[in-house]
């Protein structure tokens, strides 16, 4: 019996959230170790399990994987969410790259001042509605299929749903003007594993609050003076 | 039309340089269309060639690929530089992503405000010698010539590229790392890479301060 993957991170979204989404969508149960104190982090550092002294780290299949992209690539490949050949993988990588950039604009959001949050919010919404959402709407329009790549569920669909929901938290009508994305959102959200992840009681994390920010700053001794894009 | 990949980017390293390295290491000839002014970017944007309105973009095998990782992953997979199975790929991805973080730090130094530049560079070089290089020195303790699977992979190409970029700012960066020194010599001597390291190749020089304004003008 294979042990469940173990996720090492803070009790919050950050860079680990996409990994939680992907595992959940793949129907893979996982455990979490939350970083809460500086001592705990230093112990992890000294034990040598963090290759570049950073989290996220995921123990999976006998490996201690770090680097978010490496972890996501591995999970996607292992659970058949990475396309059927090199060309499908290239499309998936492209699409995930876009949603990663988009969600990346929101990574530092919890750490910003109230004033900068307003600016950053407007910035992200503008990028989403003028650059990213139109691109995915067009992909769906051009092939008329239910999923972004290869007429079947892939990592790209899961990542896009995550991005859409994050944007809607900032602007509830972010998808107005994108009918195919609206239908896509409904469709992907109702996939059983994803529906379960979206229901209360799952391992999905809420929007990061001040407690999260305080914990990260205290544990890492970083991110005291974060500027918007 | 030659069927060679075509790289769309300014005539500078930036985010395209690792693509040039990988193609060169794979022995793949490629063409380049340099963006020189804003209109060049706008033309690509308006004819729908850029999925997210951004470069790098590489025309290859009938696709217009954007997103640096997508491009690199495709090339590595196509030319057998991505390991033999998912576990080797996981190791390669970890190493490559770590090096990309370091490379990005060094690359970003040139656009730091004048009063922050020195501190920023010191931090980047400190990370190179205390966070990243020790990891790869330790990996090479396995006694093989290459980082993963006893065969050349994109991880080796990426490590060599990163070492050279760090050495441009700190010539003795490898002083404490004997295995990395011999790695550097060894990988630099593999035929395709040796050719790429010679004058006249498509390798780009470091960015000069004087070139920054015209680069900025393309994108802003």
From TrEMBL, chain A:
The keyword Transferase applies. GO terms for cellular component: cytosol. GO terms for biological process: aflatoxin metabolic process; detoxification; glutathione metabolic process; xenobiotic metabolic process. The keyword Transferase applies. Residues 3-83 form the GST N-terminal domain. Gene3D superfamilies: 1.20.1050.10, Glutaredoxin (3.40.30.10). It holds the Pfam family GST_C_3. Signal peptide: none annotated. One of its GO terms (molecular function) is glutathione transferase activity. Keywords: Transferase. Its EC number is 2.5.1.18. It is an enzyme of class 2 (transferase). Residues 85-207 form the GST C-terminal domain. Belongs to the GST superfamily. Alpha family. This is glutathione transferase. It comes from Meleagris gallopavo (Wild turkey).
UniProtKB/TrEMBL annotation, chain B:
The keyword Iron does not apply. One of its GO terms (biological process) is xenobiotic metabolic process. Residues 3-83 form the GST N-terminal domain. Keywords: Transferase. GO terms for molecular function: glutathione transferase activity. Its EC number is 2.5.1.18. InterPro entries: Glutathione-S-Trfase_C-like, Glutathione-S-Trfase_C_sf, Glutathione_S-Trfase, Glutathione_S-Trfase_N, GST_alpha, GST_C, GST_superfamily, Thioredoxin-like_sf. Signal peptide: none annotated. It comes from the Eukaryota. Residues 85-207 form the GST C-terminal domain. GO terms for cellular component: cytosol. It holds the Pfam family GST_N. Belongs to the GST superfamily. Alpha family. This is glutathione transferase. It comes from Meleagris gallopavo.
